[in-house]
Amino acid sequence: MIDKELLRIIEQAASEGITELDLSGKELTALPPEIGKLTQLKKLILGKYKYDEQGNIVGIIGNNLSALPPVIGFLNHLEELQVIGNDSLTSVPPEIGQLISLQILNLSNNQLSSLPEEIRQLTNLQKLNLWSNQLSSLPGEIGQLTNLRSLNLNNNQLSALPKEIGQLTNLRSLGLHCNQLSSLPGEIAQLSNLEWLDLGCNQLSSLPGEIAQLTNLQALVLQSNQLSSLLGEIAQLTNLELLDLSSNQLSSLPREIIQLSNLRSLKLSVNQLSSIPREFAQLTNLEWLDLGCNQLSSLPGEIGELINLQALVLQSNQLSSLPGEIG
Q1: Domain-by-domain residue ranges, the chain?
Q2: Backbone torsion region of residue 14, taken as left when φ is above 0, otherwise alpha when ψ lies between -120 and 50, otherwise beta
Q3: Distance CA 319, CA 89 (A)
Q4: What sequence ranges are listed for the domain Disease resistance R13L4/SHOC-2-like LRR (predicted)?
Q5: Taking 70 as the threshold, does the pLDDT of residue 191 lie above it?
């Protein structure tokens, strides 16, 4: 889009007092200072996802922005800002902290290497999406976003989390998939309202005992880590419906796992399990059980008591027979 056309769009938006402006897919390399005139805007889209009929992401309609102008801070009525898919965008200006009405901020699929400390001023923010950037650390100031309900940090380069993350007590969903985390701060236990925690594709060799305090957790994803054992304290997560432990180094499971009576899906593929405890039969709500790619030579007959099971995956084991009770 040439500058004159963009300026015309901005002028028209200003004169008509529109509250939503979509500039995705316009091949923008920069935003003119005139964008600061649109103080009535509540939603600004500078890049977005493309969805199929089922609601799945199938592409990105982005731009070529390398920076956001400081005048972005003038848009203090913005409630939603989407800046998705700008391969040259490595930072956001500190003036973003002036967007005090912002409730949704989506900065995914860019090249951000850091966040400004001023992000702490976005105290009305409820959803922050930073998926697929180059973040190696988070500022401690992120803990001041106490109204956050969803934080997506998947596909970054985080090697540690600031202890201040424990201040996000309204958080319901935390995505940390595909980072470089080798440990978690004990303060994660303070996220008492957390329902979804994705820690897959990291370098975790153990979990802090404090994770057992996340009693509202419904989904815990730990696939593709380096876990060789599981804490018995995990049994305290009695609201868990999904537990994904696939692609780890587990050779056994704690018997306390049978206390997770609300489990619907248990994924244990690609581990080193040689047996399944008979007490598994107590997980009567299980609908999906994946035991593929282990070292199982037999199954306990009690597995037949899992009467709600809809899927049982057993490929790539050492089974020569199945118990009759499976019928």
Answers
A1: 1-134
A2: alpha
A3: 52
A4: 60-155, 163-270
A5: yes
84: its two tokens = 């998705």
For the domain 1-134, what is the CATH superfamily, name and number? Ribonuclease Inhibitor (3.80.10.10)
Joined together, the tokens standing for residue 109 give 């699929």
Residue 106 phi/psi, 5-degree rounding, is: -120, 110
Q: How confident is the model at residue 1 (pLDDT cuts 50, 70, 90)?
A: low
Mean pLDDT of 187-210: 96
Averaged pLDDT for residues 81-100:
96
